[in-house]
User: Fold DUF2690 domain-containing protein from Streptomyces gancidicus BKS 13-15.
Amino acid sequence: MTTGSSDNHSTPPSEPAAQPPEGRRRWNSATSVGLAVAVVGAVAAAVLSPLGEHAVNAVLDESTCPGEACEGKNPGRQGCDDGATTFKPPAGNPAELSIRYSKECQAVWGKIEHGAKGDLVTVEATGGTKRAAEIGYGDDQYTPMVRVGDGEFEVTVCAVPKAGGESTYEHYCIHGTEATAWR
Assistant:
C-alpha cells in the first residue's frame, strides 16, 4: 500500500528558532551600522565644537591662532589663556581690572572681575584695534583678543560702568606694555 508520499524520509517537525535570553535583543546589520554612524557623528561633533577644539589644542599644546589670526577671538576657545600672564594693579582698582597677555598668541585681552550687569570692559592696543565686552550676568567678563605682535606694544584696558547701573566706581583705565611686570 502506498501512501501519498514517495519519500520515505520523515522530516522532524520544525522547532522554533532559538530566541535570545529575555531582556537581550539581537541587532541586525542595519541597526549596527546606524549605531556606528551615531557614535562617529557624536565624536566628530565633540572634536569640532569649540570645547573639543580647545581640548585637541591642549593635547597638542599649541594655540590655534598666532598673531593676526587671534584678532577678535575668544582667548579660552583658542587656547591662548593657557600660559597667559596677567597684570593686575593691586591698588586703585575697584573693579579689579586686569590685562591678560599671551606671548605665544601675540595677543592681549582685558578682564573685569567686580563689575555689574551692563558694565563694559574695553581693551585697545595703541595703533591697533579696540574691543569691548559687556557683563551680561554675574560680575565678571573678558574681552575678545587684540593682536599686539611679538615686539613692543602698549595696551589700555578700561572699566566703564553702566550709566544708572549698580556699580559704585567711575570710568578708569590701566595701561601695560611688553615691559610690564606680567605674572
User: Anything to note?
Assistant: The first strand starts at residue 85 and ends at 87. The helical segments are 29-48, 50-60, 75-78.
